[in-house]
């Protein structure tokens, strides 16, 4: 019995995203075709590889978890063999820094697509606050970093501009009097700084009700009604909801998502990854402003607290 490479590739995308729709989009096929591929794979294995309920992926089965390990090795060898046949194959290693909120987007699916196209490229990815990403890129601790800055701050190449909004779960209603419970990322985050600045400007009292190190932590605390938070509008999906002007909360600014290279990073693989991710971001439902080819500022004392 020989495994079908296409079925294994689709299975890995589902294992990484827990979504048939994202897998279908990534491989350029319908959800029905993706479902047929998984059924074919399970017929070959003789066991279920996914726990599903009403068409939704809940988790991998024990057999699915085992198969993931082999599937990655099979596909890596397959893609390396194919890539080695081309003289123009992209090779190299990139240390990439991204903001915590990238994991509220289709970021892992984007990376999977890039690796599928360039199997000889090695990636090390770290999520952190934008302020830390900027400073560490200046010190060349990253080859490439995406981060957020105030509009016009000129710390990198602008990919898109996003409006910040107040966000809550379905049952939370902010009180017009009293202290507002805020759900925040750790210090160094653009969302956190914008929320605190807006509250201070309006003279509103607030307190930290939850500080989380990941987007999923922040999202879960918000859904459960522990308070209000600030996110880019593009990241707000049900059951999260935008709190409009009637909530009595102060207006928020927009921020720019930018990327910058480390001082020693000038390889083709780094620039190809930067352009690929920039295109993914700009095509993810947010309008892209005109590109400005800006150099990373090396003046440490002007680094924005993002």
Automatic annotation (TrEMBL):
Region (Disordered): 286-306
Domain HTH lysR-type, residue spans: 3-61
Record InterPro entries: LTTR (IPR050176), LysR_HTH_N (IPR000847), LysR_subst-bd (IPR005119), WH-like_DNA-bd_sf (IPR036388), WH_DNA-bd_sf (IPR036390)
Pfam families: HTH_1 (PF00126), LysR_substrate (PF03466)
UniProt keyword Nucleus present: no
Keywords of this entry: DNA-binding, Transcription, Transcription regulation
Top-rank lineage group of the source organism: Bacteria
Protein purpose: NodD regulates the expression of the nodABCFE genes which encode other nodulation proteins. NodD is also a negative regulator of its own expression. Binds flavonoids as inducers.
Family that this chain belongs to: Belongs to the LysR transcriptional regulatory family.
Name of the protein in question: HTH lysR-type domain-containing protein
Species the sequence originates in: Afipia felis ATCC 53690
């Amino acid at each position: 019995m020989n495994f079908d490479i296409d079925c294994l590739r689709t299975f890995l995308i589902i294992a990484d995203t827990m979504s048939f729709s994202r897998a279908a989009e990534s491989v350029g096929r319908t959800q029905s075709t993706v479902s047929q591929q998984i059924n074919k794979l399970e017929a070959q294995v003789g066991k279920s590889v996914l726990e599903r309920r009403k068409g939704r992926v809940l988790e991998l089965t024990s057999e699915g978890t085992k198969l993931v390990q082999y599937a990655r090795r099979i596909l890596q060898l397959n893609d390396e063999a194919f890539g080695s046949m081309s003289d123009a194959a992209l090779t190299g290693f990139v240390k990439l820094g991204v903001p915590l909120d990238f994991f509220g987007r289709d970021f892992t699916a984007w990376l999977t697509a890039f690796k599928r196209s360039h199997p000889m490229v090695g990636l090390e990815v770290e999520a952190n606050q934008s302020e830390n990403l900027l400073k560490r890129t200046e010190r060349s601790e990253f080859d490439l970093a995406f981060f957020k800055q105030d509009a016009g701050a000129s710390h990198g190449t602008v990919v898109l501009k996003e409006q910040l909004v107040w966000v809550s779960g379905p049952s939370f209603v902010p009180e017009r009097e009293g202290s507002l419970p805020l759900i925040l990322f750790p210090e160094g985050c653009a969302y956190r700084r914008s929320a605190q600045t807006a509250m201070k400007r309006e003279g509103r009292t607030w307190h930290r009700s939850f500080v989380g190190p990941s987007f999923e932590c922040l999202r879960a605390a918000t859904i459960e009604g522990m308070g209000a938070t600030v996110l880019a509008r593009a990241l707000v999906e049900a059951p999260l909801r935008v709190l409009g002007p009637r909530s009595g909360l102060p207006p928020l600014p927009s921020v720019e998502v930018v990327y910058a290279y480390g001082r020693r990073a000038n390889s083709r693989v780094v620039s190809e990854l930067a352009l690929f991710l920039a295109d993914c971001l700009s095509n993810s439902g947010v309008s892209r402003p005109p590109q400005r080819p800006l150099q990373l500022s090396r003046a440490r004392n002007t680094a924005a607290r993002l």
